[in-house]
Amino acid sequence: MKTLVIGLGNPILGDGGVGWIVAEEVKRQLPSPPTPLPKGAGRQEVDVECLSLGGISLMEHLIGYPRAILIDAFALDEPLGSILILKLEDLPNYSAFHTTSAYDTSLQNAIEMGKSLGAILPDEVMVVGIATKRVRDFSEELSPPIAEAVPLAAKFVLDLLGKKLLDEK
C-alpha cells in the first residue's frame, strides 16, 4: 500500500510554511530503505512531498495513492500551535475558499471529479492542521508556538502511518 504525505503551504510566508517543515521532519524520521515487515504483512510505501497547491492541481498529485496525509496551517480560533487531525470529508467544503483562481475548486470537489473520470484516488485523506493566524507574513521563520508544535505534529503523522501499517497486518 502506498501513502502520500504532503506538506502544504509556502515556506516564505511565516507560519504558512509549517506544513513543509513538518513534512520534512516526517521524511527525516522515516526508515530508509523501508524496514522489512513480517511475512504476509505487505509493505507500506511512503512518499513525502512539499507543495503549494490546492484543488485540481493537488488532486492530480494524489492519483495512484490509496491513502494520503495532508499537513497544513489552519487559520483558526484555537490556541496557536494546537494540532487538529481530521478526515478531509469532515472539513467544510468551501468551493471557492483557498483557491487561487476562479477556474479551480475545493480538494473535495476535485477528488470527486477525478474519481468520476476514472482516476485512482485515495479513499482516505487525513488532514493534520496546525492552528495559526500568521500565514501571510513574509518570513522564513515560524513563530515560537508554531515551531514548538512541529515535533508533535510530525509524531502524529508518523503515528497515522504506523496505525495504517498495523491495520494492514
Outline the structure in words:
The chain is α/β, with parallel strands linked by helices and 169 residues long. Helix content is 33%, strand content 22%. It contains four helices and five strands. Strands 2-1-3-5-4 form a five-stranded mixed sheet, with helices on one face. The model is unreliable at 165-169 (pLDDT under 50).
What are the main properties of this structure?
169 residues; alpha/beta; 5 strands; 33% helix; globular; disordered C terminus
Beta-strand content bin: 15-25%
- Listing every helix as H and every strand as E from the N terminus to the C terminus, the arrangement reads EHEHEEHEH
Number of DSSP-assigned strands: 5
Segments where pLDDT lies below 50 for 5+ residues?
165-169
Helix content: 25-40%
Strand order, biggest sheet?
2-1-3-5-4
Please outline the major beta sheet.
Answer: 5 strands, mixed
Question: Radius of gyration over alpha carbons?
Answer: 16 Å
Distance between the first and last residues' Cα: 11 Å
Quickly count the helices. 4
- Report the principal-axis shape: globular
How does the helix and strand content classify structurally? alpha/beta
Mean pLDDT: 84
